[in-house]
Amino acid sequence: MKSVCKFFFLSNPLAPGLQDFGLLILRLFLGLALAINHGWGKLPPSQGFIDMVGSLGFPAPVVFAWLAAIAEFGGGALVVIGLATRFGATLIILVMASAILTAHSGDPFGKIELPLFFLTGAAALFFTGPGRFSIDRIIRR
Description:
Layout: H1 2-9, H2 16-39, H3 47-55, H4 61-81, H5 85-101, H6 109-128, H7 135-140
Helix pairs in contact: 2-4, 2-6, 3-4, 4-5, 5-6
């Protein structure tokens, strides 16, 4: 019973490798979901996406559509492989904050939930780093 309580209630009950494995799971899901399901389909940006970006009031909508698509795909890919993870997370945070504040500004929580997930997951990776199972870690050695 004591070990069960220790596992669930102590702040650092897991071996560091398991914590790093948790970060790997977060990186893989967040990065793949964003890069494949949201970024890949926007490359190159369609006229409809460019028009939508323009309707949100962004100047130079072609440029901002490309930046959003690259941030979603490229940021997601960087997070997946754990290369320049904090930079990739920053790209994701910026594009998701923009989406929440513009495209989803009047939407109910159910529609904002997905960009909020990407934003908070990227913020968590920004603060924790990618963990041991990453290219960043190999480079840092």
